[in-house]
């Protein structure tokens, strides 16, 4: 995994194919933001994966991390992302 902060302040997370294999196996990735000297964000970033955004939401609900009515953003929410609306 590659973790960096861009010149303009964006958080950059790069995942290797091994990281993707772990995500596909259901093992989330937790990033300690303190080691990246990031301020104004929570102390950890939680990266996870599932087959669809709907499954991700169900997994988060089941884990008690969000409520069913939580506001979420997907790649499709941002026309600049190139994602497809979900």
Topology:
Blueprint: E1 2-5, E2 11-14, H1 17-24, E3 29-32, E4 44-47, H2 53-62
Antiparallel strand pairs: 1-2, 3-4
Key words describing this protein structure:
86 residues; alpha+beta; two-stranded antiparallel ribbon; 2 helices; 4 strands; disordered C terminus
Please provide a written account of the structure.
With 86 residues, the protein is of the alpha+beta class. It has a domain at 16-67. The chain contains 2 helices and 4 strands, in the order ββαββα. A two-stranded antiparallel sheet has the order 1-2. The two termini are 27 Å apart.
| Estimated helix fraction | 10-25%
Helix tally equals: 2
The best one-word shape is: globular
Terminal-residue CA separation:
27 Å
Unreliable spans: 78-86
Quick take:
The protein has 2 helices and 4 strands. With 86 residues, the chain is α+β, with helices and mostly antiparallel strands. The two termini are 27 Å apart.
């Amino acid at each position: 995994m590659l973790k960096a902060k861009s010149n303009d302040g964006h958080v950059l997370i790069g995942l290797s194919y091994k990281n993707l294999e772990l995500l596909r196996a259901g093992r989330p990735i937790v990033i300690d933001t303190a080691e990246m000297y990031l301020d104004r964000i929570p102390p950890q970033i939680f990266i996870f994966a599932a087959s669809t955004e709907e499954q991700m939401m169900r997994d988060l609900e089941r884990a008690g991390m969000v409520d069913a009515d939580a506001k979420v953003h997907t790649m499709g929410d941002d026309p600049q992302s190139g994602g497809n609306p979900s």
